[in-house]
Amino acid sequence: MGAAGAFAFTSLPTASATPSASAVIAEVYGGGGNSGATLTRDFVELGNAGSTAYDLSGYSVQYLPGTPSSGSTWQVTALTGAIAPGARYLVGEGTGSGGTTALPTTDATGSIAMSATTGTIALVSGTTALTCKTAADCAADTRIVDLTGYGTAVVREGSGPATGASNTAAVARADSLADTDDNAADFTAATPSPVNSAGQTPGSGDGGGGDGGSPTDPGTVRVHDIQGTTRLSPYAGQTVTRVPGIVTGVRSSGSLGYWIQDPTPDTDPRTSEAVFVYTGSTKPTVAVGDSVLVTGKVSEYYPSSTSQSNTEITGPTTTVLSGGNALPDAVTLDAGSVPDAYIPTASGGSIESLALQPTVYAQDFFESLEGMRVTFSDARVVGASDAYGELWVTVKPNENATARGGTLYSSYDQPNTGRIEVMSLDTTSTFPAANVGDELSGATTGPLDYSTYGGYNVQATQLGTLVDNGLKQEVTRRQKKDELAVATYNVENLDALDTQEKFDRLAEGVAVNLNSPDIVALEEIQDDNGATNDGTVTAEGTLKRFTDAVRAAGGPVYKWRYISPTNDADGGEPGGNIRQVFLFNPKRVSFTDHKGGDATTATSVVKTRKGVELTYSPGRIDPTNAAWEDSRKPLVGEFTFQGEQVFVVANHFISKGGDQPIHGRYQPPARSSDTQRAAQAAEVNTFVKSLLAADKNAKAIVLGDLNDYEFSQTVTTLTADKVLKPLITTLPAAERYTYVYDGNSQTLDHILTSPAVTSFNYDVVHINAEFADQASDHDPQIVRIDLSKCRRH
């Protein structure tokens, strides 16, 4: 904790209507790291024209694009500390790939990618994002202390914005910091000249505590200084010199490097004591237990565009002082240490500049331990081992436990906080094949890392012993004589070129585990040559191999119906042309063919003298509607079972690809794919309504991979006006899942029924998602409907 100095604090003014004689925006530069720039980073410099110090605790600088759209939001960087009388205060923002000179040590750190030529910066009393988007509205907001619009900014003070900003020019006030509330008059273009609260300018210090001391003496910067109290390092872009630490883990494959941890921590729980040293393509030569001094450049590495970052030292020069040293004690991860709240929010913006609250939020807790040794004991596996040598455990055994040992994801608002991914740094041993419900017995210990795939993870130098708790595949009961059995199964990109083993395992799931349903809706049946993109769209070869394998596994001789998609129009693997397919057992159920359906022709409901029927069967629901762009179109079929007509709609809605992760830096995360799935759900809902308008007693079954949860907008839209009942909600809460992702057991696949379906038995059959050895990543499900009892209702 730094001292504020021997001066009194007073409050900042809370309105911008009167020219400020105290705290003002002194300089704005958005060209950092751009082509032609010298500086590597954007910045905002504040100044204090008053005679007393001003406390900035709880304040922020905020940025708005120069011409804001309806979707534009103010981005926020929180401030701490104070501005001394006559001093400056430096806020570092976005970093580019250009430039050669780092800022001096910043007083506050953000990640806003400011425009070099136009934008608005506000100094704000508070950290809640502003909402104003006009000059008049912002002038009326009493939280704004000072505001600077530059370039062609719509939001500015006075007659016009400051002019002259570019990749190589900032806009700056005169040294007097005079403020007339007219940006055009108060600011002029100038060479960027950032100054921090210590009076440092670029090049006035090496930023890394280079003190001219002995090569074997530690520099003045420690790891906790590098990590800071937010998710971003205050030293990002700067070179640090002879940073001391003990090597706690070495990664000799993948992203090469090693972790160091300072055995002498500070007292601030927000500052991690460890950091990853990235060695690029050079395999590390250090060993665990080495005491080292590291010189290199601090950087923030983003595994993806929406993920959080890893603070790293890159381009390192390492001096090994000694070997075999004791490692710092590991921090225990358990129900008592990991908070129950998941992550802070920033109105959809980045949380990177927010001060960490490790006793409040689980993700802040993990971030405060970034790179440090952590440990947990006797943890239950909640996500099976995968092909990449990863598995998931929970350190909170009582958190939303499923009936079979997983952790249920049941709400956007309450993500499971006890999940943690486990990887191994031991490249000489085989990673265990763990299923959900198994246990890692004893201690698992290693540095805490962050990845775009799942978020925080333990890079285990010591891996617990796997205890097999004997999870078994489920087998559902066989349908009774008067029960129509209808199932759905995503068979994960099955095509005629796949191995016979894959066909046999998937076929066994249908014939044995699902006990040969009368109708099976299959998702992800590919064309006959899979990913070969040559215009092939038929799937006869794929379906012949699959139905032959079902028969060999003891199932019936299924027939099939489908509609070939237009080439490369339905999403999925390029060239694969995935589609939904109906299999049906002709000895139990008949398919009613109404010819003429194709990839672009819509089927509809018509009344005839014989009753309600489809214009095309099989047919597609409004396939040219924009809701189905680059996505699978629902397949509709008309069936007859024991004289009763049944309509089945097989679906495979658009995936969640492109959504921001729940562990990412933007909070709450944007779920951009929701919009299209909701539109798809509305189309299916409209179709079912048309069926029920023609026959209120129509028996409809809507099923498939909806790629969304039972509590989602997708399902809410699909079931609007109570035209459909989601059967997953009829199960006990601990059994509501069909898929496991990042250690979360969740529902993506669904069966829904119309009101006339009153007598049914529903079952999710767990055979894949919880197992390391999977035939598909989805579990199938089945509904058995007693139509004779439905007739009596």
The averaged pLDDT comes out at 92
| Major beta sheet summary | 7 strands, mixed
Helical content stands at 10-25%
Terminal Cα span? 73 Å
Task: Please state the structural category.
Answer: mainly beta
Question: Could you give the count of β-strands?
Answer: 42
Write the topology of this structure.
Layout: E1 9-10, E2 23-29, E3 41-48, E4 53-55, E5 60-65, E6 75-78, E7 82-83, E8 88-95, E9 108-109, E10 119-124, H1 135-139, E11 144-150, E12 170-172, H2 183-186, E13 188-190, H3 223-227, E14 239-251, E15 256-261, E16 274-280, E17 291-301, E18 310-322, E19 331-332, H4 362-367, E20 373-383, E21 390-394, E22 419-424, E23 439-451, E24 455-460, E25 465-467, E26 483-494, H5 500-513, E27 519-525, H6 540-552, E28 559-561, E29 579-584, E30 590-592, E31 605-608, E32 611-614, E33 619-620, E34 635-641, E35 644-652, H7 674-694, E36 700-705, H8 713-718, E37 725-726, E38 739-741, E39 744-746, E40 749-753, E41 760-764, E42 781-786, H9 787-792
Parallel strand pairs: 1-4, 8-9, 16-18, 19-20, 22-24, 26-27, 35-36
Antiparallel strand pairs: 2-3, 2-12, 3-8, 4-7, 5-6, 5-10, 10-11, 12-13, 14-15, 14-17, 15-16, 17-18, 20-21, 20-23, 21-22, 23-24, 23-25, 26-42, 27-29, 28-29, 30-34, 31-32, 33-34, 34-35, 36-40, 37-40, 38-39, 41-42
Helix pairs in contact: 5-6
